[in-house]
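Saturday, quiet lab. Running sequence design on the structure tokens for the scaffold JK sent over.
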């Protein structure tokens, strides 16, 4: 007998958004399903609040016992709700058996920041008269921002933490992520290419990994020992791009191939059938790899050795040709900084234009600023004496670092590259924050003796 199916809508929507899918599922033999409605347009409510309310509603409204297994189909922000719910308790990981994500905002949305303004309140704001009238749900929108600290911290817990939330042992949920490739004139302007008008294809699946580049001088290690690369999370569950679908039509007007794949996903019982499903799904709309979108997200966080964020920084990528450096054009063309803390950034790359397969080497140029001459950032100096961490006025430091190893790296026997289409990569960069002058043998200007 099929598990109960819980249907979770997204931001600014209501439970009735899933009525079409509820009818479809019922016609396919999945009659035991329950639609969840949650408040997203109240400014004081955040994702953890919603996840806790969801857990209570499973018992009081859906009638599920505390250990009863179920499947879930989520749309858009519903993905963050179910991820937060899973992360709150180890017992919950074993309850959720299958997770079907339709256009999920797994790592946020490029339109979230735009929803904060007056137009966002008029278009998406709550229309019911009362104390919440025309609120736009800033608590949820904050979490949905590209590069938000919420998404970073949640991913550290459920994707890169010690406890495996999404694995291959059959004890964790099987995840199936779909995302359309169609945008209209207005939605393309708001969300940009490589999206379905609201969420990005590269940010839909849980197919992700984290890289830590520790450039701190305090460690007496070569550069190779300063690079930590986490294993792929759910590497065998890439996003399934749905040709011709947008953020709304994937809910309102799903086509037959999509419906078939979703129903088949709800019957998966082993990792073997799971991987076979993905092989079929890859052929449903696309005939070759070249037909598929080639976008990638890189979410960065720059911190000092104490863990404090570095809000004023810029990074660029270069390749070295002879003695000259050529900038990787397009790397920083589409960058979003988290509005509450700009130490978090999200880069959106079009790999068809960047063409990383041409690179023989890769260099990271970083510019760090403290905006005061009393302190500056420094880091690891390579054996050849480069880079030179010589701060200028206002604590501005610039250096270039050879990270060519990220083009062809071996992690536990597996080949690794920084660039992978339709994925999100987390990149943490650690630098030293030093009182000036930089010479440790000289007194600082911050603290002196009379």
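Result came back. Writing it out in full:
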């Amino acid at each position: 007998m099929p598990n109960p199916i819980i249907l979770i809508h997204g931001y600014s929507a209501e439970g009735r958004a899933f009525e079409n899918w509820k009818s479809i599922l019922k016609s396919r033999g999945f009659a035991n399903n329950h639609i969840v409605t949650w408040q997203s347009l109240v400014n004081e409510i955040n994702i953890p609040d919603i996840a806790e309310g969801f857990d209570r509603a499973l018992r009081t409204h859906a009638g599920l016992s505390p250990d009863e297994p179920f499947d879930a189909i989520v749309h858009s922000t519903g993905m963050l709700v179910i991820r937060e719910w899973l992360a709150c308790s180890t017992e919950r990981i074993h309850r959720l058996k299958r997770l079907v994500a339709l256009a999920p905002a797994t790592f946020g949305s490029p339109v979230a920041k735009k929803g904060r303004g007056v137009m966002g309140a008029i278009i998406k704001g709550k229309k019911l008269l009362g104390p919440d009238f025309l609120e736009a749900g800033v608590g949820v929108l904050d979490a949905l921002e590209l590069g938000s600290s919420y998404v970073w911290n949640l991913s550290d817990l459920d994707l890169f933490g010690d406890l495996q939330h999404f694995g291959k042992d059959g004890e964790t949920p099987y995840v199936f992520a779909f995302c359309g490739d169609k945008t209209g004139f207005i939605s393309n302007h708001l969300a940009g290419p490589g999206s379905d008008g609201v969420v990005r294809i590269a940010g839909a699946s849980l197919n992700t990994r984290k890289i830590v580049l520790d450039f701190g001088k305090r460690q007496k290690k070569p550069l190779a020992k300063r690079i930590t690369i986490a294993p792929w999370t759910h590497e065998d569950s890439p996003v399934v791009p749905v040709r011709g679908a947008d953020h709304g039509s994937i809910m309102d007007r799903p086509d037959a191939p999509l419906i078939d794949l979703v129903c088949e996903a709800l019957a998966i019982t082993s990792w073997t059938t799971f991987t076979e499903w993905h092989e079929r799904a890859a052929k449903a709309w696309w005939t070759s790899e070249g037909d598929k979108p080639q976008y990638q997200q890189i979410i960065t966080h720059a911190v000092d050795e104490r863990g404090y964020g570095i809000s004023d920084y810029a990074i660029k990528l270069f390749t070295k040709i002879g003695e000259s450096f050529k900038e990787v054009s397009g790397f920083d063309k589409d960058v979003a900084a988290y509005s509450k803390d700009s130490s978090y950034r999200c880069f959106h790359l079009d790999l068809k234009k960047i063409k990383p397969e041409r690179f023989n080497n890769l260099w990271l140029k970083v510019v760090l600023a403290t905006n005061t001459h009393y302190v500056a950032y420094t880091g690891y100096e390579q054996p050849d004496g480069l880079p030179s961490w010589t701060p200028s006025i206002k604590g501005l430091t610039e250096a270039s670092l050879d990270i060519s190893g990220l083009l062809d790296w071996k992690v536990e026997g597996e080949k690794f590259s920084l660039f992978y289409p339709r994925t999100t990569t987390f990149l943490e960069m650690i630098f030293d924050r030093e009182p000036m002058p930089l010479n440790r043998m000289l007194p600082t200007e911050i603290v002196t003796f009379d």
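Notes for JK: The chain has two domains: 5-205+235-291, 295-435. The two ends are 81 Å apart (CA to CA). Ask whether to fix the surface positions before the next round.
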